[in-house]
Amino acid sequence: MEFGFHMPVDLIFGTGAVSNNAKKLVLGSKALIVTGRNSARISGALDDVVSVLTSENIDYYVFDGVMNNPTLENVSKGASFGRENGADFIIAIGGGSPMDAAKAIAALMTNDMNPIDLISTVPKNQSLPIAAIPTTSGTGSEVTPYSILTVHSMNTKKNFYSPSSFPRVAFADPAYTYSLPYEITLDTAFDAFSHLLESYLSKRSNYFNDVIAIEGMKAFAECMDALNTGEITEKTRESLMYSSCLGGVAITHTGTTIIHAMGYSLTYFKGYSHGRANAMLIGSYLDFNRTAQPEKVEKVLSILGFESIDEVDKYFMVGMDKRPVLDDGEIDKFTGLAMGQGSVMQNPRTVKADDINKLYRELFGGKG
Amino acid sequence: MEFGFHMPVDLIFGTGAVSNNAKKLVLGSKALIVTGRNSARISGALDDVVSVLTSENIDYYVFDGVMNNPTLENVSKGASFGRENGADFIIAIGGGSPMDAAKAIAALMTNDMNPIDLISTVPKNQSLPIAAIPTTSGTGSEVTPYSILTVHSMNTKKNFYSPSSFPRVAFADPAYTYSLPYEITLDTAFDAFSHLLESYLSKRSNYFNDVIAIEGMKAFAECMDALNTGEITEKTRESLMYSSCLGGVAITHTGTTIIHAMGYSLTYFKGYSHGRANAMLIGSYLDFNRTAQPEKVEKVLSILGFESIDEVDKYFMVGMDKRPVLDDGEIDKFTGLAMGQGSVMQNPRTVKADDINKLYRELFGGKG
């Protein structure tokens, strides 16, 4: 048994997390709130945060310009805004996009660097401290150091990460997800599940991390009927956020594998949501990796309550008639981009470009 | 579901942990190695540490004067030695005593304060960073912020704790316990189990912490036969260290309850090892708390593989004919001291002095 476990984020889970732990939100004297256009407001999270900051006499500035799948230009703009206003800590509110953007902004605000260098170097100075408040249950970004940024010059998403980009504190309040539309609930839940699954099967998986991944997959499994029917209760919201947080903890220790590597192009070029892109790949992923991790694949089937991988594949296609068809050029391009992601190295079964190409072709070649 | 989870220690588990992660041991430019007289040497841990420090060109000084159940005077001496030599980080090697002492020393070296004030105040300055290397599987101190110190002026042990007394990094290498005598193996394993049990039943227990406590109790349960027969394999050593680490993570979030509160006097006045003192109380503890947490008590029985609490009690008395007999004066005194421990507040069933007195009397009144 060998493992490393490091989860420096102070995670506070439960309804009322922000209001009940006001002092923990205050990580400096002037806050930059980083968020998107809507979710922070609709969820009620922004109101709670502003209420705490006001009662604690903390000045704040709101950068609500984070786009979906934030780009380098986007985070650069946020950092300039933060610097102009002299913020010394960051409160990220939203789904993966605002939280990931906040990590890049927190690094750019303390480091005079070209944003593109985030992808290839570890910034010299420590990032500003971040409090993260998820309003979806998918990314797990509130407990990871990862920041997934869209890099147009490379035609894909890339991962920025520094030891100081772990949020200092995370407030995971399931109530902030009560108002999420069904479609987003589904997409984000599938993202969380893919984190748990990929972490569990990863070459970097380890004994204790498996315990966490299994716990998270079990929590997801409890929600599967609700996700299928669309009858999402508050109890389901709670379990989904729990599984999402555990997914974040799990990938912190292992990273992801080929689902994420292959899914990015389906988002970047074809416009599928991140979770949906992953979901379309889950069945084939299990099938492809079955020889490398037969017992673990069986365990996943057992947790999900299915007999066969076909059933898994069918489940994760909920709400979709069929997969999109890609032409040969797209498949070759997506293959090259997937192979350029470091995460392919951690796939349980060693993969070559031919394997990825074949997987894309089988799923999106128009025969399925 | 509400919980907090915070485990900022970078835990590296497995054989070869120190040698394979040399850079992580170096937390400054001059190390103070804090240890007891023997275990660091016998276990091989000191050799590994010195070898890493030498190859990394880090000066070090060895304070090997930590006593069993370290006193304020003892840690004060260690801090003076560290200051005289200009150490800027600490490497703690040993069982609970050296690791707990190291946390107090790390605080005293950066704070000009009376050692007794450690018990009642949070030191103003951050402690020196600590790398912790356990050579027993019991205390879990390598992943907690707790430091249990013997305070003669108060006739008991007291808990010192500061947010900066979490070790920065912990190297949990089961091989360092291979040479432990049977008696110490048993005592420390019982200590680890009591952490897991008390954490699981604590009023402060929570959903996610329960997952960890259950995992730890299952690992302990795998070792029960070996602990009983004394045939301790390397696999057993590994599971014991794993359960001990998880016990530390668990009590970090909940603290302990009345087993620890009641056990301290059995150590302080009667000389029983900490683990043995706890073990003598486990059966009655389950019985006393059964009404408050019936399902959890059943779960514990099921994990341990027993039908009744009597069987649990018998198991944890392995190697002892009977409990010591205390006189009325001792029972009254121990009751008062137990009630002075904050941990009694977290007991699943609310306790008054009369309850503690009755528990002591039933177990140690000479009728058992």
Give an overview of the whole structure:
- Two copies of one chain form a homodimer.
- Chain A has 368 residues and is an alpha/beta fold.
- In chain A, 49% of the residues lie in helices and 13% in strands.
- Chain A is built from 16 helices and eight strands.
- Chain A has helices at 17-20, 22-25, 39-43, 45-55, 72-84, 96-108, 182-201, 207-221, 224-229, 234-254, 258-268, 274-289, 294-304, 309-316, 328-339, 353-364; strands spanning 3-13, 30-35, 59-63, 89-94, 130-134, 146-151, 156-161, 169-172.
- In chain A, the strands form two sheets. Chain A has a six-stranded parallel β-sheet with strand order 1-8-5-4-2-3, sandwiched between helices. In chain A, strands 6-7 form a two-stranded antiparallel ribbon.
- In chain A, a hairpin with a 4-residue loop joins strand 6 and strand 7 (156-161).
- In chain A, helix 8 runs antiparallel to helix 10 (234-254), helix 11 (258-268) crosses helix 15 and helix 15 (328-339) packs across helix 16 (353-364).
- The A-B interface holds A 1-15, 174, 207-208, 211, 215, 238, 242 and B 1-15, 174, 207-208, 211, 215, 238, 242.
- Strand 1 of chain A pairs antiparallel with strand 1 of chain B, so a sheet runs across the interface.
Please provide a brief summary of the model.
The structure is a homodimer of 368-residue chains. With 368 residues, the first copy, chain A, is of the alpha/beta class. In chain A, 49% of the residues lie in helices and 13% in strands.
List the SSEs and their pairings.
Two copies of one chain form a homodimer.
Chain A: E1 3-13, H1 17-20, H2 22-25, E2 30-35, H3 39-43, H4 45-55, E3 59-63, H5 72-84, E4 89-94, H6 96-108, E5 130-134, E6 146-151, E7 156-161, E8 169-172, H7 182-201, H8 207-221, H9 224-229, H10 234-254, H11 258-268, H12 274-289, H13 294-304, H14 309-316, H15 328-339, H16 353-364
Parallel strand pairs in A: 1-8, 2-3, 2-4, 4-5, 5-8
Antiparallel strand pairs in A: 6-7
Helix pairs in contact in A: 5-6, 7-8, 7-10, 7-12, 8-10, 11-12, 11-15, 12-14, 15-16
